[in-house]
Design a protein that fits this description.
The structure is a homodimer. Chain A contains 7 helices and 10 strands. By secondary structure, the first copy, chain A, is of the alpha+beta class. Chain A has 2 domains: about 70 residues, Winged helix-like DNA-binding domain superfamily/Winged helix DNA-binding domain (Arc Repressor Mutant, subunit A), CATH 1.10.10; about 150 residues, Chorismate lyase-like (Chorismate lyase), CATH 3.40.1410.10. Chain A is globular, with a radius of gyration of 21 Å. Strand 7 of chain A pairs antiparallel with strand 11 of chain B, so a sheet runs across the interface. The structure holds a DNA duplex (19 and 19 nucleotides). Chains A, B: It comes from Halothiobacillus diazotrophicus.
Chain lengths: ~250, ~250
DNA sequence: AAGTGGTCTAGACCACGTA
DNA sequence: ACGTGGTCTAGACCACTTG
């Protein structure tokens, strides 16, 4: 029998199991959308009881890294195909519905990180970035302009055509592109929201008057171990939509 | 021994326990800040095992209705005194710190619910409301103007002097006022955020130019069983602060 | 020392989905 | 029929807090 004392570390067993599972996820042993071994199989593999594996998995489910499906198994969360594709999109129309967005590709390019973006992404100032610009349409109206930047080192071989094809595809999210083409899985994100005025360029893209008040949302998206991967600035026209947040 | 089949409902046992605990909370059997019976005591009281009580409590802790303190006991969450007083305040300064706010009382009054507010509060249009206006200062600057409304029926006997004293008090939050004086405990809230332009009145109160872009945050706060209790509109100057949101 | 929550186990049985 | 996750139990021992 394995007891807590025999383990090298002083962490609770379920915490250690949690980290072992996380490592298998980030190492790619279990791919997005795939089923991981059953609780009993993992218990045997790690030499602990099913209850301990269960507790570890429960916490990973709460963190949206795994998905349980009763009677079928436990699966690696994915940004492709399932209903959770837009779980980071907090915009709703005035009726309170979260309409599915449709993207329009605007531009693709390369540039260097300024100090602010470099700091958020944890890279050196001036390092190479990939940039993507697009419009999000909700209910047929241009509502969001996105300016997106990622370290170029993470997306070797990316091209404008690839991005354009994926962005314009039906329900093609960028996070599913990162996941399927570059083995980068977005787990969490943080957003900083301020109010701003539309400048001439953004006003033109969103079809509003210059000087219109907009939300300016800075988002940093993270992969495993809280490593920042993507930075974006979103400008949102809130005439017919709002940002929705639940507080607990 | 009690088995699942003997229970009148088909809900899992821990769900039933959860509801029984929630009822004791909303009935006031256990007051805010007080310790609830130990897991073993509750297990005996409800005729289930400790593990089942534990699971029920775990979920209530995740919903911020209870707080565990190892070695001491499990306590009813409160908006008074402990460090969670401002857990709904998502504003940070540009350095990323969540400074503690200081409130300035602006006004108190009574009015009638318009259609929009009545809908959010689940009351009839035209029913009596209490209104409170105040300014929140962060790091010494007026950053937020709040216009707050509650059904008058919930706050019988409230007076301008009571509110003014409480609002201006050191770290006196309105939610602790509701809790201590009116037995209303705020459990959760939802916020709808839009961008707007400062009108002359709000600009004057916040000390900014008319036409400055502001966040307009509509908040509805709920007590037990998702019953809406308070509506407020906050206007936020985001020159030196931002709204921070974590996505999972 | 006593009481509390925190961890872990072993085993039973149920509910669900697939073959 | 079988395998999966979901619930529930009983009991052991640990870690922390207070008297």
């Amino acid at each position: 029998m394995i007891t807590k004392q025999q383990t090298p570390s002083f962490l609770p067993l379920y915490e250690q199991i949690k980290r072992l599972i996380t490592r298998s996820l980030s190492d790619g042993e279990w791919q997005p959308g795939a089923m991981i071994p059953s609780e009993m199989a993992l218990a045997r593999r790690y030499g602990v009881s099913q209850g301990t594996v269960r507790k570890a998995i429960n916490e990973l489910v709460a963190e949206n890294m795994l998905v349980r499906r009763q009677g079928r198994g436990t699966f690696v969360a994915t940004h492709t195909d399932d209903g959770t594709s837009y779980r980071f999109l907090h915009l709703r129309n005035l009726a309170g519905e979260q309409a599915y967005p449709q993207s329009d590709f605007i531009g693709f390019g390369r540039g260097k990180a300024d100090a602010a973006v470099a700091r958020r992404l944890g890279v050196r100032s001036g390092s190479a970035l990939v940039q993507i610009q697009r419009i999000l349409n909700l209910s047929g109206n241009a509502v969001v302009y996105d300016d997106i930047r990622l370290p170029a080192a993470l997306l070797k071989g990316i091209s404008s055509a690839m991005v354009e094809e994926h962005v314009n595809a039906y329900r093609g999210t960028l996070y599913s592109l990162y996941e399927t083409q570059y083995q980068i899985r977005i787990i969490s994100a943080e957003e900083r929201i301020r109010a701003t005025l539309a400048d001439a360029r953004v006003a033109g893209l969103l079809g509003v008057m210059e000087g219109m008040p907009l939300l300016a949302i800075e988002r940093v998206a993270f992969t495993y171990k809280n490593q920042p991967v993507e930075w974006r600035m979103s400008y949102v026209n809130t005439e017919n939509h709002y940002y929705f947040d639940e507080l607990n």
